[in-house]
Specification:
By secondary structure, this protein is an alpha/beta fold. The protein contains 8 helices and 9 strands. Helix 1 packs across helix 7. It binds guanosine-5'-monophosphate.
Length: 209
């Protein structure tokens, strides 16, 4: 029914399991493409350059902003994060549903540029679970964990601006992935994503009058 893929922003508390959810979704087929962001933060153990992020210097990041190479960017806990423009536009043109795993500032910017973007927010069942998950990662100091919790507290106020909220329960990853797929499928049938169809129906019907 439509050729261009949808744009799906997936935001959520740091530690809510967005990364695992994205990986699980991508395993389900090549109709999805995940945008690889650029960041100035250091890689965590196990993260690879060009796969999890493009890890760059602040200088390189600022050059990319100036060159207009980013669709959006934001500062999060003292580091820059941004979405490379070209990759997203070409994947969408190929008909892929493109997923942006970005923060709420980025989500708002993207929605302004592409109003048909679907905004999905991922949460843990409760605040205590979020703290436990952040500590369980074992990769960050208590200070960093504290700043991520403070950030989550701010973000929780913004959830109502999103289109959907999904709870990512421990041990329930497949169910959460199913729900995300349902949302993406439904996005293909939004009136705003099918303007050509609606216009052609309108033309055809008016010709019949
Ligand atoms: P982390 O350091 O945990 O990988 O990511 C921190 C936050 O930055 C997360 O909320 C993540 O979604 C967000 N983020 C990652 N990439 C981007 C991006 O390209 N743009 C924006 N605005 N936020 C991003």
């Amino acid at each position: 029914m439509k050729e261009q893929g949808s744009l799906i922003v997936v935001s959520g508390f740091s530690g809510a399991g967005k990364g695992t959810l994205m990986k699980n979704l991508l395993r389900r087929g090549d109709r999805y493409a995940l945008s690889v962001s650029m960041t100035t933060r250091s890689p965590r153990p196990g993260e690879a350059d060009g796969k999890d992020y493009y890890f760059v210097s602040t200088e390189k990041f600022e050059e990319t902003i100036k060159a207009g190479g980013l669709l959006e960017y934001a500062k999060y806990c003292d580091h820059y994060y941004g979405t490379p423009k070209q990759a997203v536009l070409s994947r969408m043109a190929e008909g892929k549903d493109v997923l942006l795993e970005i923060d709420v500032q980025g989500g708002r910017q993207i929605k302004k540029i592409f109003p048909e973007t679907v905004l999905v927010f991922i949460v843990t069942p409760d605040a205590k679970t979020l703290l436990e998950r952040l500590r369980g990662r074992g990769s960050e100091s208590e200070d960093v964990i504290h700043s991520r919790i403070a950030r989550a507290a701010d973000e929780s106020r913004i959830i109502p601006d999103y289109d959907y909220v999904l709870v990512n329960e421990e041990g329930d990853l497949d169910a959460c992935t199913d729900r995300l797929e349902d949302i993406i499928r439904a996005s293909h049938f939004r009136t705003g994503s099918n303007r050509e169809l609606i216009e052609s129906l309108d033309r055809g019907l008016h010709e019949l009058i």
